[in-house]
Amino acid sequence: MSREDTPTVSPVSLRRRPSRTVPATIAAVCVTAVGGLLAWAAIARLVDSRWPSFVGWTHRNVGDLTWGSAAAITIAVVLALVGLVLLVSALAPGKPNAFVIDDSDLGSDEVASTELIMTRKAVAKLATAHAHQVSGIDSVSATVTSRAVRLTVSSPSAQRDDLSQRVTAAVREALDAVRLTPAPQVTTTVRTTQP
Amino acid sequence: MRVFSSGLNRTWLAIVGLVLLLTGALATMVATGLLTKVVSGSARTSVPASGDRLLERGATDFFADQGVIIATAVLGVVLALLGLAWLIAQVPHTKAAATLRLRDDASMGLTSATSAVLTDVVVADLETLPGVNSATAVLRGSASHPQLTVTLTASDRTDVRSLLRAIQTGPVRRLARSLDTTVEHLGIQVDVSPERRTSDSVTL
User: Fold this and answer.
1) Which of A87, A177, B79, B178 to pair with B158, CA 20 to 30 A apart?
2) Residue B152 carries which DSSP code?
3) Is-cis flag, bond preceding A182, omega within 30?
4) Do A3 and B103 touch (CB under 8 A)?
5) In which element (H, E) is residue A181 found?
């Protein structure tokens, strides 16, 4: 069976960094609002031969301020700070949403390239589940960063060090079996509860 | 699974941020009188003094000009359209393939299949695998260069690597054979959910 030979497209990456949707949405709304107001004011001036009332209000309340006034300095500083925040949010890389799973021995003749990932949330759930399987654990919570898994377990046992080692070993074994890259560092903190 | 406009957001945030930062910094330097100390010569005379108004009378005359008003209207419309396009780009999309055209001899007719039909089959196939609680799939690209993206929720007791191997040798292989080609790119996102547990009590 033959088919149309369309050009290949670049694959969509599953492992991604934050897309900055919140600051982008706020900035896009502001740009749209400023553009809309400018267009409205100018078109109203062309059609009615006078500026809309909000232009007069802006002129009276902002245009009449002196450069040295506290209000003008505040507006200038706020403008610079907002710009700085937007610039930092654009340039800061952010944490990736997932770990890559090593696919070196998972190849297949039917697949040209693969991208296998496990989300940080999934790693936390997997770590929590395997920590729960250790005897003597009441509750577990896990925090996963891009390079580490930090577990906090509650137990009535006073053998904190022993329990910490057993939980760390169990979780590390489970994560090693998945072969995440980079392999996260596992640490466990034990909190003793009243039996 | 969905595609977000990350690159677009970063580019426009950097542009808007830089414009605001430079404007704000320049205005702060003017307002605090710092700029008059920095610049020298004829440029110093054009810097507003701290007692000057933000909009001098000349500004009113400037905006009375017909050409300036038209330019302002055009600038406003362009800004509004750019902002609107940026806002619309925030809606995540799947970029799923359109109808895949599988062509035999043209005189014998054309065969086509929607990507949704194929992904439904792949999902049904995935959900029969042991350890898979649920799955979704998106087929991108074309019939000759298919790209499959799978999001699956596995039980927390599942051997993930065995499951990934089973996916490639099962549902993905069957998809490739049905399209009579290799899958150009396979993306699998593994999520985890707790094993369904049953509780009971035993009295000794």
Assistant:
1) B178
2) E
3) yes
4) yes
5) strand A180-181
Burial (0-12, 13-18, 19+ Cβ within 10 Å), B97? buried
In the numeric block, the tokens 């009441």 are attached to A138
* Domains with residue ranges and CATH for chain A: 21-91 (no CATH), 98-192 (3.30.300.70)
Separation between Cα atoms, residue B7 and residue A101, nearest integer Å: 24
Please give the pLDDT value at position A54.
86
Bridge partners, residue A56, by sequence: none
- CATH class of the domain comprising B100-193: alpha beta
- Residue A174: what pLDDT? 93
- Give the residue from chain B lying closest to A1, CA to CA: B104
- How close B168 comes to chain A (CA, Å)? 7
Q: Residue A51 is which amino acid?
A: W
CB A14 within 8 A of CB B187: yes
Q: What is the mean pLDDT of chain B?
A: 85
How far is Cα A41 from Cα B72, in angstroms, rounded to an integer?
A: 9
Residues B160 and B190 sit within 8 Å (Cβ to Cβ): yes
**Residue contact A1–B103, C-beta within 8 A:** yes
The answer on pLDDT for B198 being more than 60 is no
Q: Does B202 touch chain A (CB under 8 A)?
A: no
Rounded distance between C-alpha atoms, residue B177 and residue B198, angstroms:
40
ipTM of the predicted assembly exceeds 0.90: no
Burial (0-12, 13-18, 19+ Cβ within 10 Å), B9:
buried
A165-186 pLDDT, tens per residue? 999 999 999 999 999 988 999 9
